[in-house]
Amino acid sequence: MKTLNCQDDDIKYWLALLRIEGIGCLTFASLIEEHSPEEIFAATENELLSWDIKKNLVEAILNFDWSLVDYDLQWLSQPNNDVLKITHPMYPDALKEIYDPPPLLFIRGNPQILVYPQIAIVGSRNPSALGNKTAFDFAFELSKYGFAITSGLALGIDSTAHQGTLSAAGFTIAVAGTGLDRVYPSSNKDLALEIVNTGAMVSELPPGTLAKGSNFPRRNRIISGLCQGLLVVEAAQKSGSLITARMALEQNREVFAIPGSIYSPLSRGCNAMIKEGAKLVESPQDIIEELSQYKQRISSLRAEPEQSLLDLEQQTLLNLVMFNPTSIDDLVESSSKSVDSITSQLLMLEIQGYVEAVAGGCYIRIK
């Protein structure tokens, strides 16, 4: 798959700003409200201080080690690797809604999978045989219906949910707590490769980032932020899965839980979530009925399977072409691409039946 953002003139500045210690998601968002990352790195010390940027961050900006970005760009130049800026049209709308969305989302695999309605499945790293079967069956049936299944690639329920989706030839998304140039846990390397080949792995962390305890709670907010509904299969009363479920509730996502025996430690977390407002479910159909508002969107996406043949750059341009006449000048302005680049891409989209040339040098989208 062809990469897109690593060819943008300003992507290296976004990557640099992300790597500065002390600039988290909220600070990053605040900085780019007024100034682009490129402007920030081009500014003088006095200018940066006048923009109310803290002195320690000003020093970090002025003395940034650009070799770190070289590593990022090298990773992005490899097949199937990409990154989405929060300002990009294909950045998931659901993720933008959370309190602290990642300014950049690194991707291995097919970014277009992110447009599908998603159900996250989480649970114990040491599930029972029944818990594993439940996670597999729910993932299989929900992905057959058309939902993308999102989880965290952890051992246990996460891995089983990914495997259930792959067995159904569905789309699964793994949210990593490391950079995407590595797999954690390493025992899931083969599973990660299967996911990349048919779905996507995503992370807010730049390449080279090692597994660290504090990364995983932050990873969990992305799992819940990407989804429309979250299912907890088995979870102890104090577990990461319950943290993810509570994040989902805070993000106004639908939360579902599988009930279990009052005597089982692995059921206590799910039973507690049901007490707190999660919906008790006994079959995948319970979730499908609860999220029936996404049926039309799923049907629409399924009706255009050839859409997956577009690379990210073509899909981005297609998103800018309206169902009423759109001029090339408008597309150049919206995309910041050259006339030659826009024209050649429009020709390919026209050949593939996505757009049609009309009078006045304009194009309309026809599907």
Structure description:
- The protein is of the alpha/beta class and 367 residues long.
- The chain is 46% helix and 13% strand.
- It is built from 18 helices and 12 strands.
- The strands form 2 sheets. Strands 1-2-6-5-4-3-7-8-9 form a 9-stranded mixed β-sheet, sandwiched between helices. The protein has a 3-stranded antiparallel β-sheet with strand order 10-12-11.
- Helix 8 links the parallel strand 3 and strand 4.
- Helix 1 packs across helix 6 and helix 8 packs across helix 14.
- The longest helix has 17 residues.
Tell me the fraction of residues in β-strands, as a range.
Answer: 5-15%
Please report the number of helical segments. 18
Q: Could you list the spans in which at least 5 consecutive residues all have pLDDT below 50?
A: 1-7
Query: How large, in whole angstroms, is the Cα Rg?
Result: 22 Å
Shape: globular
Q: How many β-strand runs?
A: 12
How can the largest sheet be summarized?
A: 9 strands, mixed
Adjacency order of strands in the biggest sheet: 1-2-6-5-4-3-7-8-9
Mean pLDDT: 91
